[in-house]
User: Fold these one by one.
Assistant:
Number 1:
Amino acid sequence: MVHAADLMRKAVMRLAWHSGFASRTRDRFGGLGSIIMLHRVRPDCISPLGVTRSLSITPDFLDQILTSLKSEGTQLVSMDEMIERVKTGAQDGHRFAAVTLDDGYNDNLNHAWPVFQKHNVPFTIYAAPGLIEGAAVLWWEVVEKLVTKASFIKIPGGPEWRCGTLFQKRAAFHSLMRYFSYTLTELEQLPVLREMCAAEGMICSVPADQDVMNWKELRQIASDPLCTIGAHTVHHYNLKKLTADMVAREMRLSADMLEEKLGKRPAHFAYPYGSAKAAGKREAEIAAEEGFLSAVTTRHGTIHPEHRANLHALPRISINGRFQKLVYAQTMMSGVTTPIANAGRRVVQA
Ligand SMILES: [Zn+2]
């Protein structure tokens, strides 16, 4: 699927890089470095409608990115080291990049880990215990499977969509994404999804169907000194839609469960969804109160000395499956796209 907006973004990024503008302005916009955000790393694309393709890159592309970063002198660091560098402002003439992966997909173990080991590069995986235990689902993946299979979709007691053609299926998927994100409460999502799946003869919420690592697999990858495990709530809820007490509980319980299962309390946190609609000042304050050293959003931006005062709302650079060329990753990490994506702001915080 080709998006007109993607074509425009790609054209702007190619121009910024090939004209030399991105490298000339890197000192101003690139800051101390970047936190890279990934989700899935696998050789094949498993998005049947192409609508969740952005969440997946290939191991080859990961290899290219790490090779390129090392060759240009970028220091690849753990989240602990990243925090130290932000606190001290230490640069040593080199920018840093910290690699993070959200949700704990099992392809992180099978496909990404060998690439990190090959390059001896630290990485952080933000895991949500509810996804492992079957108490939560990656609902957007189930919705895509549902829309792919069905010719007609109805929300129980709510709107309905025809999905006979590919065009209708993609339109229905995007409408359902909005419905699940903004109309349903977080606690309603799973029961509604289960009912919709039952109507199509599909089973929902089976952990094995979700492609996330089980506890044994998470322990296996966590045993590598290169790997840091961070928390990502228990149920992968949009925290802005919860009360402050529930936010604190989701954060604390996810850390408790990871500590119990892995033997080490996570020091770093990632907000589920992580946009301005899912994480703000209140969530950043609670993450700090709950004792996390850092918390990352999904807002687009590079890391600057100003973030020293706001370590619980750190932006990231998403390496998107629809933008799998080095030129796009290099341009975004130069920082030149940060003000474009953030109404002119060079430093992105909560
Ligand atoms: Zn997530």
Number 2:
Amino acid sequence: MTTTLPRRFRDDVPPLHRPADDPVDVVCPACSGHATVRPWPDGGRRLSCRACAHVRDLPAGAPPCCRAVRLWLVTRCRGGELWALNERHLDLLERYVGAGLRERTAPGMSLVARLPAWIKAGRHRGDVLRGIARLRSMLDGPR
Ligand SMILES: [Zn+2]
């Protein structure tokens, strides 16, 4: 997973600056392994890699780190990019798609409210759920 993401994908990624967010799964800029970005007490965020122990501090007020750090949970699906910030986001996606897209007002649904139309299209549900399963399997990699 080392390809550069298309512009549209980056624009779809919500800002990763909300302190209350869970750690975000990202690609390590040093070894391309599975790293996480989590809020840090100084108001910035810290990227740390499980594979190579690389650490990078992302200062408070820096441009959205999604422009410098790629998400780990990305897969091709129906010719588009299916992605998730972390396992919690994956759970939301799965519930949203699996429920036939009816849970628009459930807590946390704002995260998926701006999904691309091809994900929301009911006829693609099976493909999208298989894509979500692929992403989930990526969470179980080496730690
Ligand atoms: Zn690394």
